[in-house]
Amino acid sequence: KEDRGHKVFVDSTRAGGATVIAAYSPRVRPGVPVSFPVRWDDLEQISPADFTVHTALQQLPDDDPWSALMSRPQHLSAELIADGHAIPVARVQAMHEGKRRARARRR
After folding, report:
1. Does the predicted TM-score (pTM) go above 0.85?
2. Of 23, 27, 40, 51, whose CB count within 10 A is highest?
3. What is the residue range of 92's domain?
């Protein structure tokens, strides 16, 4: 892990119950809550039901509550972006096979 430096490894072949949630994305849950970034200080006064597809737009702050916590954007070289578009077919097939097995286990 030390060799990574400030890099993040994104494993596109994770299967099973692994999920990734993007900020401001609707969730498949009763009430259709929206993933919403909030300040630590606000956690005790809010609940997930406060942020739904019907209320999220009105709740948007003027500034991003996470902006002070994030590092500056990084420039990605064209070569790195091109490499990211070339996921080997065998890995994609393995990823989908894992999803099929997970679905079969749930049935």
Report:
1. no
2. 51
3. 2-106
